[in-house]
Amino acid sequence: AMQLAGRWFLVSVASRCSHLAEHSHQLEATTVMVTVLDGQSLAISTLRKLVNQDSLDSPLSFSGHGHSSKVDVVVGEMDPSSFAILYYQKGRSISVKLYGRTSRVSDAVADKFEKHVRAVGLSEDVTYYFPTYGFCDSADEFHVLD
């Protein structure tokens, strides 16, 4: 659980979700903050410009609760210092998400993600990459633009 703690950037999602397909042109840079609560449970906050969603989960194989039914999440592959590939399953539908410690991942990590995507029968046609712009580590109180 401790290896998942910290800030992650959502890099890519492979999913047959019709909502994602219809609105892929509106994808926003997204970060996820993972906090270990008691050595086993995780608090997960998803942050976008106008959305903040919190959930509590347990590590490595955990369940999140979506709008209508249970979502099972399993860590497929991970290097805690650089990336995590997670499988999300809701009913018979499965998606794969790639998270990075930075908003961009290496080509080798992208290749690993694509192999995981193909392994569950998904393709590049349903793989969406999130924008890398819009992240700020910090901001000054006063900014002057020339």
From TrEMBL:
GO molecular function: complement binding
Cited InterPro entries: C8G (IPR043245), Calycin (IPR012674), Lipocln_cytosolic_FA-bd_dom (IPR000566)
GO biological process: complement activation
Transmembrane region(s): none
Domain of life: Eukaryota
Domain Lipocalin/cytosolic fatty-acid binding: 5-130
Protein name: Complement component C8 gamma chain
GO-annotated cellular components: blood microparticle; extracellular exosome; membrane attack complex
